[in-house]
Amino acid sequence: MSELPELNGPRVEPENGKPDKLVILCHGYGSNGDDLMGLVPHLRHVMPNAVYISPNAPELCYGAPNGYQWFALSTLSREERLVGTLKAAPILDHFIDQELKRYGLENKDLVLIGFSQGTMMALHVGLRRKSDIAGIIGFSGAMTLPENWENEITSKPPVVLIHGDMDNVVPVEMMHQAFIALNDVGVDVDSHVSPGIMHSIGPDGLQKALEFLAKL
Fold first, then answer.
1. Is 42 a catalytic residue?
2. What CATH number does residue 86 fall under?
3. Which domain holds residue 184?
4. Active site includes 167?
5. pTM summary value
6. Residue 6 maps to a domain
7. Candidate list 190, 199, 200, 204, residue with the active-site label
8. Is 94 among the catalytic positions?
């Protein structure tokens, strides 16, 4: 019996038959699993036989009604992001193991989609699975880079990073930093900057994500 917190949240399963992909959506700070489920109708046009799960993060976010957090975050400092990510990563990793087992799927069938703090989690955990996952989509996020992180990488899936150039919460420069880091270790990474978009997902950003999924 694991002592890690158990995650739960909304899910949408294929209408017919067993799913061939597991798509886990990781919401941002102060949000909840319902938030990203609005993407699912769009995603299903491209990946209709996937199961989509958007778990609530493990901690309540005080001051945000019905909101959760992967970890407490008062600044975007590297140190604070690192401590929080390392604490929350085993929880998300365990949840992924459970859901893959539930549906009889493997790492190669897993897609992680994150927004903001959820992108930090998706990148950290997705690159450290025991074998390559199918892909990672990171919206409006950043990447936590522990010392010697390159030696921890065990999965190099294709990645797309999508960010608004007017983001006043997570500056777009943090996406560029993540792109450089991923590219330097040989990850097949693409990026897209949405003009005039703040801390959100623009129509062009969603289209970029759908094109990425279609390639998978």
1. no
2. 3.40.50.1820
3. 11-215
4. yes
5. 0.95
6. no
7. 199
8. no
Q: Is residue 33 part of a domain?
A: yes
121 vs 96: CA distance, rounded Å? 12
**Tens digit of pLDDT per residue, the chain (216 long)?**
458 889 999 999 998 889 999 999 999 999 999 999 999 999 999 999 999 999 999 999 988 888 999 998 877 777 888 888 999 999 999 999 999 999 999 999 999 999 999 999 999 999 999 999 999 999 999 999 888 898 999 999 999 999 999 999 999 999 999 999 999 999 999 999 999 999 999 999 999 999 999 998
- 78 in any annotated domain: yes
Strands in 189-194's sheet, in edge-to-edge order, are 11-12, 50-53, 21-26, 110-115, 135-139, 159-164, 189-194
Please pick, among 35, 93, 109, 167, the residue that the annotation labels catalytic: 167
Q: Which residues contact 62 (CB under 8 A, 6 or more apart)?
A: none
Q: For the chain, how many structural domains are there in total?
A: 1
Among residues 31, 54, 116, 194, which one is catalytic? 116
Domain assignment of residue 202, yes or no: yes
Instruction: Using alpha carbons, select from 115, 152, 93 the residue that is nearest to residue 39.
Output: 115
